[in-house]
Amino acid sequence: MNQSICHRLRDFLISTSIIISVVFSTAVFAENSAKLAPDFSLPGVNNSQINLADYRGKVVLVDFWASWCTPCIRSFPWMDEMVEKYGEQGFEIIAINMDQEAILAKKFLTRYPNKLTIAFDPQGVVAEQYEIMGLPNSFILNKQGEIVYKHVGFRLSELDKYEAEILSLLP
What we know:
Blueprint: H1 3-32, E1 35-36, E2 41-43, E3 49-51, E4 59-65, H2 70-86, E5 91-97, H3 102-111, E6 117-120, H4 125-129, E7 137-141, E8 146-152, H5 159-169
Parallel strand pairs: 4-5, 5-6
Antiparallel strand pairs: 1-8, 2-3, 4-7, 7-8
């Protein structure tokens, strides 16, 4: 093979490997660096106001859901169980409803009673800040209010993993 072609091929391979290394190291760095969760203040049940800032110092799972979402129905009993199990250790769940019609959320909550903190975001303003990608979409925040884990969907096969993530942030 021509020496000039060999040098160009070698330079191309070196350049390509450097670019690939930078891309993968950036992806790993971005994944491992916690990002402060966008703050919010939303209406809650019984005319309450839910402010994320009030939960600093606690591990918080922020969950976006809707009444028509089948995986959301499956997630509610599990989330309720987690609050029951770890609430005294400083774990909270804020379940943010995305239904545009409040009556749909109220019917859901009557059908599936729970002990979660419920907030309403019918215009999707907070959902947009969190850049949700589907429902349910959840974010686990550490005590400093940083997003440590993110999940799109709810899989029964991953319940142990979800619980382990919560436990990793509790004392």
